[in-house]
Amino acid sequence: MLSNINIILLGTSHPGNIGSTARAMKVMGLRNLILVNPKQFPSNEANSLAVGCQDILKRTKVVDNISKALKSSEINIGFSSRKRKVNFPILTIDECIDLISQNPNKNISALFGNEQSGLSNQELLICDYLVSIPTFKEYKSLNLSAAVQIFTYELFKKSIGEIKRPGNTHKLATTKEKSYFFSQFINLLTKTKFITEKNTKSLTKKIHILFNKAGLDRDEVNILLGIISSINKKIKK
Amino acid sequence: MLSNINIILLGTSHPGNIGSTARAMKVMGLRNLILVNPKQFPSNEANSLAVGCQDILKRTKVVDNISKALKSSEINIGFSSRKRKVNFPILTIDECIDLISQNPNKNISALFGNEQSGLSNQELLICDYLVSIPTFKEYKSLNLSAAVQIFTYELFKKSIGEIKRPGNTHKLATTKEKSYFFSQFINLLTKTKFITEKNTKSLTKKIHILFNKAGLDRDEVNILLGIISSINKKIKK
């Protein structure tokens, strides 16, 4: 999964960004990092930011020109925040992710330019498409590894399909269990005279709505029944 | 826009993450950062990573407990990657963004725990909802400021509605301009005998498809006409 995607960093100045990029990749299931003329690699700074990602840094390829980085690549996607005057095929980030998901067997490279100046004109000419991550008009300076993180996140999100809620495995209470709780609770409130003949209809409704909103699970119903029982013991004649 | 959203960092250990968070916020149009018991703030490390975001750091509030951070907050959303056993209202990231966009007048806080351990049990109890950013099952260690970046990116993306392609303002060639180019080009290829009576139909079709795929603009059509003209001059008797 996503093993056909390469992240290519071009002329990266700050070694910390290489470490952060490795982490941004691994946490979203990507493994292939290629560096073209990094200012410094390997480095302690990259290592210290790539917590738990030494495997990614170890397999990272370093090459001295962009053609070597892309020799097996079939689709090259450049990330660029600058407006370009030429008639270049530009994709939105969503279109870019769709294109990638429709080509699971193609070798695809995502190119990220130098921190200061982005992709050079020569680097642009190798790109089949350009993508611009949307940013706030008054401050467009997205950090390099943050841009990679957004891209890998969108890729991973698409790859897993609809996101499932994590950890919600406990049993919800059944209607029968909840009905028993409601009857016990309303009995109690009738005994305490909080519920009277006059208000029983409206209060019963409100109490049902309140507890139904809580999405009670079995444990919670048992806790509520325990509370009612403990109160009943105190108020019984 | 998005001015009702606060980012709350709880017990942050690495000052660099505070600087990166400020940048992750500003680039997506957020301004309100609150730090609860940061290990170190202000700091040179935060400043150096918050390139161009001194305004965000200057207005950042520092408080010594979570209640002070949330005193005006109406909806508290905790970010957590751990599975929780209790029946907590859990939202997917898309549901979280929808909830926020449906409440533009509510004061909303997004809480991010300490780098090592995330949100504590006590911090969880203040949250109305929990959100988990999806990550790769074999390595779930999303960097703190990367998590903030994904959240602010999703918020910003939603806030601007459908993303428009940047920079595509040049004029595409009209059908008339393209038709003239095609006729000139086919004339040329007939002269060079690349097109013959036999293949004219299939080649004409292929040539139209090839150039139509390029989405030619007016300049490009003029360049092609110039090329044809220069060749015509050389091959004319």
Structure description:
- 2 copies of one chain form a homodimer.
- With 237 residues, chain A is an alpha/beta fold.
- The first copy, chain A, folds into 2 domains: 5-159, SPOUT methyltransferase, trefoil knot domain (Alpha/beta knot, 3-Layer(aba) Sandwich); 175-235, Helicase, Ruva Protein, domain 3 (Orthogonal Bundle).
- Helix content of chain A is 45%, strand content 12%.
- The first copy, chain A, has 10 helices and 7 strands.
- Chain A has helices at residues 15-26, 44-49, 54-59, 66-69, 93-101, 121-124, 144-159, 175-191, 200-213, 218-235, and strands at 5-10, 32-36, 61-63, 75-79, 90-91, 108-112, 129-131.
- In chain A, strands 3-2-1-6-4-7-5 form a 7-stranded parallel sheet.
- In chain A, helix 1 links the parallel strand 1 and strand 2.
- In chain A, helix 5 crosses helix 7 and helix 8 runs parallel beside helix 10.
- The first copy, chain A, is elongated, with a radius of gyration of 29 Å.
- Chain A starts with a strand and ends with a helix.
- The mean pLDDT of chain A is 90.
- Chains A and B meet through helix 1, strand 5 and helix 7 of A and helix 1, strand 5 and helix 7 of B.
